[in-house]
Design a protein that fits this description.
This protein is mainly alpha-helical. The protein has two domains: about 190 residues, no CATH class; about 180 residues, no CATH class. Helix content is about 75%, strand content about 0%. The chain is built from 14 helices and no strands. Helix 3 packs antiparallel against helix 5, helix 7 runs antiparallel to helix 12 and helix 8 packs across helix 9. It is globular and about 70 Å long. It is a multi-pass membrane protein. Keywords: Cell membrane, Membrane, Phosphotransferase system, Sugar transport, Transmembrane, Transmembrane helix, Transport. Its main location: membrane. It is found in: Cell inner membrane. It comes from Haloarcula rubra.
Amino acid sequence: MSDSNQIESALRAHVTSVKEDLMTGVSFMIPFVTIGGIFLAVAYAVGDTQAVFENTGSAGWFLAQIGVAGLTIMVPILGAYIAYAIADRPGLAPGFLLAYILQQGTVIEQAAGVIGLSGGGAGAGYLGAIVAGLLAGYVARWFKQLDVPGFIQPMMPVLVIPVATMAVLTPIMLFVLGVPVALANQGLTGFLESMQGGQAVVVGLILGGMMAFDMGGPVNKVAYVFSTGLITEGIYAPMAAVMIGGMVPPIGLAVSNFIAPHKYAAEMYENAKSGVVLGSSFITEGAIPYAAADPLRVIPSVVAGSAVGGAASMAMGVTMPAPHGGIFVVLLSNKPLMFLGCILLGSLVTATIATLVKPDFEDRIEAEQEAANATPSDD
C-alpha cells in the first residue's frame, strides 16, 4: 500500500472513530434533552408562558425547574460521554467539567476580557461541549498510555488522569478555544433569532433534508443535535423543522405504498402500516426498509418531502420546544395545526415523487434479472 493510501486509510478510520465518539455522546444526552424539553414545554402549557419562572411555588414553576435542569445538564453530559467514548472512565469527569465551565457565561466573559476580547456571555453551548469532550478524551487517553510505576497505576484512572487532564486543558479551553467557540455560538444564536423569510426557508430546507438523508445516521444526528442544542437558547423553530423532517419519510413512503402497492414488494405493505406508527412517533428509521430496497429512488423522494416540510415549518414560524415525541407532543407546538399541516405536506411530496419515479415492482425485478443475465461472466 502506498504512503498516500495509508494516509487516506488512517484518515478515514479517524473520521469514523470521531463520528462514533460523537454519536455516543449524543445517545447519552438525548434522555436529558427529552426530559428537559418535555417538562419545560408542559410548564409553559399549564402556566403563564411569560411568567412561569416568576410564579414560584406554582405547578408550572416546579415543572419548569425540572425542564431547565435537564436542558442545562444535557450539554455537560454531551461533553462527558464524548470523552468517555474516547478514554473510558478517566475522561468522564474532565469532559463533564470542561463542558460545564464553558456554559458559564460569566466565566467566559471574564476569560474574554483577559485576552482582550468582549462578549461570550451566553457561554459556548453545545459547540463548546463537543470541543471539550473531544480534547478531554484525547488528552486522557494519552495519559492512560504512559508507563508509570506500579504503585501509581491504581491511582491513574480516578486521580492522576482526571486531575492532570483538567490541569492541562483548563487554560486552553478558557483562553484559547473557549472564547472563540462562545463567540461563534453567540453569532449563530443571533443569526437564528433574527431569521426571516428566505433565510428561515433555507435553514428549514437543509435541516429537513438532513433528517431524511440517512434516516437516523450521522447526517440525521448532526441536524438533531444542532436543533436540540438551540432549545437551551430558547430557539424552538429549528426543532420543529427537524421533527417534521424526521417524521415525513416513513409516513410519506407508507402513503405511496398504500396508493400504489404494485410498485412495492407484497411484504412491504405490512411495513407501511408500521411505518405510519413509527413516523408519527418521530422514528425516521421506519423508512429504512424502503431505502434499502431501492435507495436511488427512495432517498431523493424522502429528502425532497422532508426538505419541503421543514422549509414550510420555518416559513410559518412553527416551533417545537420538545425534542422528541412526534405527534404525541404536537400540542406543545405554538401552531399545532400548522405543525400537522407541514407533516402532511412533506408526506404528500414524498409519496408523490416516490410513486412517480418507482416502476412497477415486477417490471423492476424483470429488468434487474435481464441486466444480470446480460452481464458477461468471468469464465
